[in-house]
Structure formats: C-alpha cells, structure tokens
Sequence to fold (80 residues):
Amino acid sequence: MDFVRVIKNSNDLEKFIDIPESLKNRKVEVIILPYADEENSEQSEKRSLRGALSKYRNGGLQAQESDAWSQAVVDQYENH
Fold:
C-alpha cells in the first residue's frame, strides 16, 4: 500500500485541516493513506457465513426437516 509521511509545521496545515489548539505552532507528523470506500472494503473483507449459526443447531430437529412441510400440510388439512 502506498502512503506519504511528512513532518510539517501545523501553521502550514491550518488552511486545510482544523488544528486543535494544543497542536498549533508545533511540528506535526502527517500521514496520508488511501481511503477504502465501502465498496472496496466489502470486497476485500468477504468472509463466508457458512457455519456462523452452528451453535444454534439442534441435531434432533435436523432429522425432521426433510418431511416438515409435508407433515404440516397433513396436520392442517387432514380433517377437511
């Protein structure tokens, strides 16, 4: 990553940056880094959500998932 690091007198920066009173009339270090906007940062930080909810898994209910919908339909319309 490219960056710029310089030591400047804070008075030279007052035109561009709001300088706190405690830093006025002093030498300061200025570091310039590239800005990572949301679009670029989302792409660079892509992570998988696979397994993110595994701590809530209930193995006993997983066995029933395959026929849960058909059983719900039977329960609802069995007597109609």
